[in-house]
Amino acid sequence: MKIICIGRNYADHAAELKSETPREPIVFLKPDSALLPRKQAFVIPEFSNDVHHEVELLVRINRLGKYIQPKFAHKYYNQISLGIDFTARDLQQDLKAKGLPWEKAKSFDGAAVVGDQWLSVTDFKDLNQIEFSLLKNDKIVQEGNSSQMLWKIDELIAYISQFFTLKIGDIIFTGTPAGVGQVQPDDHLIAKIGDTTLINLNIK
User: Fold this and answer.
1) Secondary structure of the chain: what % helix, strand, coil (to 5)?
2) Hey, where are the domains in the chain?
3) Which pLDDT does position 87 carry in this prediction?
4) 23 vs 58, which has greater pLDDT?
5) Domain covering 3-128+145-183 assigned CATH 3.90.850.10 in the classification
6) Which of 166, 150, 177, 151 lies closest to 60, judged by CA?
C-alpha cells in the first residue's frame, strides 16, 4: 500500500507558503509506517518545534491501474475520506533551502492520519463540490472545497499513474487548502466533510 501525496494543489495554500503555483502536480510519497494507528493520539516528534496540520480529501484506489486516461479515472476509486498530512515545517524549510528531499519532514512515523470511515462516492452529488473543514480546539482553521483544487481527482489519478502503478488500497492525499498551522500538546483536531466528522484527534 502506497500513500501518494500532492503538494500545492490549492493556489491559496501555495500563496500562504510564499511558493509558486506549480505548473504540474507535485507528487511525493509517505511509507505505510507513516500511518497513525486509529484511536491513537498524534505525538509531536522531538526533532521538530513547528509541526503543522494540513487537512486533505483522500481517495482510495480500488483496482490496479497504469497509464489511466482521465475519462476512465473514475473507475479506479469509489470511496472518499479525509486525512491530515502532518508536516515538520521547520525541518521542511531547512531541507528545501539545501535543495534536499522532504521525506524527513513529511514521512515520519504518524505523519499520515486517515479518517475513521470512508464515504461512498454515491453519497456526493458532485465530487468537484465537496466541502470540508478542520477545527482546532473547536475553532475552524481550515476550510476547503474540491472545486478549488488545481487538479481534480480524476486528473490526479491519470497523472500519478504515468509514474506509479496504482494498486488496490493505495491512498491519495489530494492537497490542502489555506489555513495550515502549528499544533501544540493538548490541541484537539476535528475534520469534517459537511457535517460528518471523520477525524477526531488529540495532540500530545
Assistant:
1) 20, 35, 45
2) 3-128+145-183
3) 98
4) 58
5) yes
6) 166
